[in-house]
């Protein structure tokens, strides 16, 4: 495994009564990856509001086992992540559990933006814009993984309703400044984040902003 | 028959030829029967009936149409698609539903790759009961639901079927993305709840057109939201024939701006492989 991708900006404020092992700001548009041991909690804070945080998680010991959207939504019978939701692996095990969140719900089905899908969604002029898949591939490359290890991701703080006729789409967010989600690792995991750089839809309020990550136990 | 000697064993082995199994391929494929109207036997490149829990995988040339038929009413076709020329590119169900602004698959929808290209299009659909959200089963899920989930047991799981199917094309377990399911439907309630809507009955079919040369893998395992405590699965028939990819002359090509750009991206990909640039352009 390569070294963890970490931000060089740190802050000191910490959850009361917990041992903080990491407290960082992820710059707007940036990738991030970090091992989280079983039992530790990763808190992601939407600092300025309506910032989508694209998220993948792997079994640290065997990354062929990884987050699975279908296993996660089938496990709970619902497409939205809320307090109590478990992030299930492709082998049917819990990778992490949402132990608390102050944002009403989070998205499972919207996937990540990419240069390639942006050309379909918005036009070929977007081909060279930065995108979440770019962040994921770079972060994975530092952990001896590549495109074959990509899978569809969680979008924390992103709002994707599905209408009765099946119409779905990314609409104005329901998050706000300071809202957060706590994820307890149920096994030793590698958490990978793309702080979404999308500027063509409202997932980041058309203005990508930093988020804060804290790991504590 | 005796199998005590090599000559006896040889005679015994050869005597088995010609046995009829309801779940097997038709070889040669031009012997295929009950073909769709307008399809000649000479066009057929693959006919096979997949039994409960079974699987198959084939490479399909550009333009191939694959008809999947739920012959007895309880098939569930779990399908994965890869770009045959560069299989690191594969089906992406999140992009499929997001780019097309539609969670439910039906005629006129594309199966999109993770590289912004049309892998296949849904050319026909008499079922209307499909699912792009819930994926396939794994061993743990089938073990919990049926008491057995291994592929050597009575209730094979989709994930392990795919692992073996793609291994035969040199692909690894980590290259199994979420699949789509045909013949078993799911709807999303306003609350976000997943609602299983079952199948459409015996004899319905869906036709998929290869918009790139593709590796097509299918398993026939019960849908993960099927409420039955029994491993209910019935035959899945596959019939594939040579045809042509969607062109600019077809209504589908420009049916939406997103679909048109997906076709253009697929066309651009083929230009990497066809020096004359005559791949699909009129």
Notable features of this structure?
heterodimer; A: 217 residues; alpha+beta; 12% helix; globular; B: 282 residues; 5-stranded antiparallel β-sheet
Strand order of the largest sheet of chain B: 1-13-3-11-6-5
Average pLDDT number of chain A: 94
Total number of strands of chain B: 13
Main beta-sheet annotation of chain A: 6 strands, antiparallel
| Integer count of domains of chain B | 1
Strand arrangement within the widest β-sheet of chain A reads 1-10-3-8-6-5
Sheet with most strands of chain B: 6 strands, antiparallel
Structural class of chain A: alpha+beta
Helix percent band of chain A: 10-25%
Shape, per Cα inertia axes of chain A: globular
- Taken together, the total number of domains of chain A comes to 1
Task: Note the quaternary state here.
Answer: heterodimer
Rg over CA atoms of chain A: 16 Å
Order of helices and strands of chain A, N to C?
Answer: EEEEHEEHHEEEE
SS-derived structural category of chain B: alpha+beta
């Amino acid at each position: 495994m390569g070294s963890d991708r970490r931000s060089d900006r740190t802050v000191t404020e910490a959850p009361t009564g917990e041992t903080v092992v990491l407290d960082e700001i992820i710059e707007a548009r940036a990738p991030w990856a970090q091992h989280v041991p079983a039992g530790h909690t990763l808190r992601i804070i939407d600092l300025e509001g309506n910032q989508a945080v694209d998220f993948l998680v792997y079994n640290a010991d065997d990354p062929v086992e990884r987050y699975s959207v279908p296993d996660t939504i089938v496990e709970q019978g619902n497409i939205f992540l809320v307090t109590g939701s478990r992030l299930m692996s492709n082998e049917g095990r819990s990778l992490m559990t949402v132990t608390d969140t102050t944002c009403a719900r989070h998205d499972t089905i919207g996937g990540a933006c990419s240069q390639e899908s942006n050309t379909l969604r918005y036009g070929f002029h977007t081909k060279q814009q930065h995108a979440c898949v770019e962040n994921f591939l770079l972060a994975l490359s530092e952990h001896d993984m590549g495109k074959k290890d990509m899978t569809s991701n969680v979008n924390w703080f992103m709002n994707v309703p599905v209408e009765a006729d099946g119409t779905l789409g990314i609409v104005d967010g329901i998050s706000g400044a300071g809202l957060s989600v706590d994820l307890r690792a149920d096994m030793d995991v590698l958490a990978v984040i793309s702080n979404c750089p999308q500027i063509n839809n409202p997932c980041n309020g058309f203005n990508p902003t930093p988020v804060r990550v804290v790991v504590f136990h | 028959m005796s199998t005590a000697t090599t000559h006896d064993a040889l005679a015994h082995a050869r005597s088995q030829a010609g046995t009829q199994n309801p779940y097997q391929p038709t070889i040669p494929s031009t012997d295929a029967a009950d073909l769709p109207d307008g399809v000649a036997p000479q066009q057929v490149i693959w006919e096979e009936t997949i039994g409960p829990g079974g699987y198959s995988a084939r490479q399909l040339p550009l333009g191939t149409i694959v008809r999947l038929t739920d012959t007895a009413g309880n098939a569930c076709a779990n399908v994965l698609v890869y770009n045959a020329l560069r299989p690191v590119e594969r089906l992406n169900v999140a992009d499929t539903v997001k780019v097309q602004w539609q969670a439910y698959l039906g005629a006129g929808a594309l199966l999109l790759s993770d590289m912004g290209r049309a892998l296949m299009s849904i050319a026909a659909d008499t079922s209307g009961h499909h699912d792009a959200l819930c994926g396939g089963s794994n061993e743990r899920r089938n073990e919990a639901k049926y008491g057995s989930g291994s592929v050597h047991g009575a209730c094979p799981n989709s994930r392990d079927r795919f692992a073996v199917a793609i291994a035969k094309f040199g692909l690894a377990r980590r290259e199994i993305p979420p699949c789509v399911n045909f013949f078993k439907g799911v709807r999303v309630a306003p609350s976000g709840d997943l609602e299983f809507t079952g199948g459409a009955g015996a004899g319905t079919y869906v036709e998929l057109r290869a918009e790139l040369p593709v590796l097509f893998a299918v398993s026939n395992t019960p849908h993960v939201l099927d409420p039955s405590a029994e491993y209910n699965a019935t035959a899945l028939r596959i019939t594939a024939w040579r045809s042509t990819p969607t062109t600019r002359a077809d209504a589908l090509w420009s049916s939406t701006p997103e679909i048109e750009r997906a076709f253009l991206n697929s066309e651009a990909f083929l230009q990497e492989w066809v020096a004359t640039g005559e791949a699909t352009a009129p």
